Amino acid sequence: MGKVRFINAVRVVGLLFVLTYHLFKPALPGGFLGVDIFFTFSGYLITSLIILAFEDTGEFGFWSYIKKRFCRIFPALFFSILFTLPFVKLISPDFTYGIDKQIAGALSFVTNYFEILKGGTYEAQLLPHLYIHTWSLALEFQYYLFWGAFCTFVLFVFSKIKHPNKMQKLKAFKLILLASLAIFTVLSYSNMQVLFNHYPEKTVAYFAATSRMHPFFIGSILGILFGLRLPYKISQKIKSHTKSIKVPAIVSFFVAVLSLVILCVKVSFDNDFTYRYGFFIASVLTVVLIMSARILHEIIPLQKKEPALIEHLSNISYPMYLFHWPLFIIFSNLVTSHLLAAITTLAVSYLFSNLLFYFIEPLFYRPIYAKTENKNNVLCKKSVVAAIICLSVASTFADADIILNKKEISDLEKEQMVGNIVQNLDKIKGLKTGADNTTEEPSLQEEYTPATQVKSILKTAEALDTRIKANVTIIGDSITLGARKRLLESIPSSAVDAKGSRSLLDGYNLLMDMQKSESLGEYVVISLGTNGISDANLYIEKIIDELSPGHKLVFVTPFDGHWNETWKSYKTMQYLRTIKDKYPFVTITDWVEEISKQPQLLGADKTHIGGNSEAINLFINKIVEGLNEAASKPAK
Q: pLDDT, tens digit, for every residue of 584-623?
């Protein structure tokens, strides 16, 4: 069977969607569906190859099949980690926290379940994992194992049954696979709905193999019905209608691409539509892309080659996928310009991808030197391989140093852990004595952060209005937790309840509990929203509507150094700004406006303030400003 032309365009479309999503997310907020294009294409390709092997030999060797799949994806994965990990030395040591577990998860093809256990997504982490993107490789290899084992089982059963001839056996094999795939598709899609409904966070539904394999199964169905090698009669029939189907095939391809673009513009990671229909629609549109490309291969003369650019991008699409994410995390933490970080990422990823595809991958599954090559070309390639070996050795030493000297806990997690412990101790003391108590907070951050350079704690520049004599209740998330001790010192008669990962929904529930127990101060400060939720606006309004009379409400706008206008936290900030003058008893104090002027004061995640006295001082100033403004307003 010769090479099927134009089908590589499908893989390129998937790559472009993923790169756009990761590097320029506002332009394509649903670009993560590019992974589903890969999944559907992979299902089509693998099943087509299984059918071809059975047609040619009447057998299917599971171990040789797994060996080929492993040699195709593991070496590139291994070298991408080997070459990208040394770059971590250029950024905060916090990124080394848990790096050994990330690498182990990636190399053992279980990253998807590692991220489920960690609760990680591309948007919901203190510090983004460098190798979170390998979850898709884990899922792909899990599909290889499951589908290969299932096909082996079916053929084992077939071996016990007599068939009239080879064609009848092939037909029966295909029918059983089709029926099974239809069932698997329904089960996988249904499991996604169950997981989506059961878990408030989307992590499980997004990463679980049971819920995400239906794109592979959809592609596998096409691989059986319209595979890489069509029956002679079908091929001839298509060719006989060249004039009538050529234009529709081209049009259908571009219509499918346009439809995918529109879909990716409309959906987002946390959008309900994405999980109800988005992944399924993306897989169906990918089927249209594959069929269109497959038809064009049949009807366009063999002399017409596939565009060289498409073939080249397809060749390096896998290594580009592997390299771009960790490099983007690193470069975006090195330079302030997002555009420069993205361009640098693409350039360095392209360089590594070419080295990987043309010089490293051939060592494992295809010959690196053609017999007809001249001596100069062979010598040049050998020189490049020698340079790569030297680079690999150097990278190995750098990687070992990073792993052996990794941080056991990041400053950000340490900040939250210590803050929670101290807050709980204060609550316990308060219960014992019936009075407010503050425990001296261990200054664990000073050992690791630039805050050790600050010789004295800055006093709040903004004095608290003398009219604010009543109690102040502050409800916050991990940002507030990092400033809790200073808040208690700076605002007399205040009570601070802060907790990592707290959302506006959680804050609303806590507010209602405090209100029922009559422990709510006259001034209520809500510093939430960084942990975005889809219905944040609803809970902002519920807080405003259900707050008891006699209180004054202050909202602090949330900030996230990684966000863009598609993020829920950003939309929450924008919504708070729109209600600034809507309610007489509500004050909006703009933390975003203040910290955006000095983002260098934030931690490694570009969001948290703990450990930096200047950042803490600015945060408290904004809260005090909000309270002073609220003092001049009427209570509800």
A: 999 999 999 999 888 888 877 788 886 678 888 899 989 9
Q: Where is pLDDT greater, at 386 or 348? A: 348
* Contact of 321 with 353, CB cutoff 8 Å: no
pLDDT value, residue 202: 82
Helix runs in 24-126, H state only: 34-57, 62-84, 99-107, 111-118
Distances, alpha carbon 303 to alpha carbons 231, 297, 300, in Å: 22, 11, 8
323 with 134: CB under 8 angstroms?
no
The counts of H helices and E strands in the chain are 27, 5
Tell me the average pLDDT of the chain.
85
Question: What's the rounded mean pLDDT across residues 111-127?
Answer: 73
- The alpha carbon of residue 38 and the mean position of all alpha carbons in its chain are separated, in whole angstroms, by 16
User: Apex CA 5: angle with CA 4 and CA 6, to 5°?
Assistant: 125
pTM over 0.85: no
Cβ proximity of 120 and 146 under 8 Å: no
Residue 448 tokens read as: 């690791």
Residue 97 has pLDDT above 90, yes or no: no
Question: What kind and span of H or E run contains 554?
Answer: strand 552-556
pLDDT, residue 231, reads: 83
Question: Exposed/middle/buried for 349, CB within 10 Å: 0-12, 13-18, 19+?
Answer: buried
**Torsion sign across C-alpha atoms 428, 432, 438, 439:** negative
Least confident of 10-24, 313-327, 417-431, 506-520: 417-431
Strand bridging mode 586-589 / 552-556: parallel
Residue 381 pLDDT: 65
Query: Distances in Å between the alpha carbon of 257 and those of 193, 290, 292, 297?
Result: 26, 11, 11, 18
Residue where the block lists tokens 């809970």: 539
Cβ(13)–Cβ(289) under 8 Å? yes
- d(CA 43, CA 39) in angstroms, rounded, equals 6
537: number of Cβ within 10 Å: 18
86 touches 395 (CB < 8 A)? yes
Quick one: which of 578, 589, 587, 581 has its CA closest to 547?
A: 587
Place of tokens 């703009």: 590
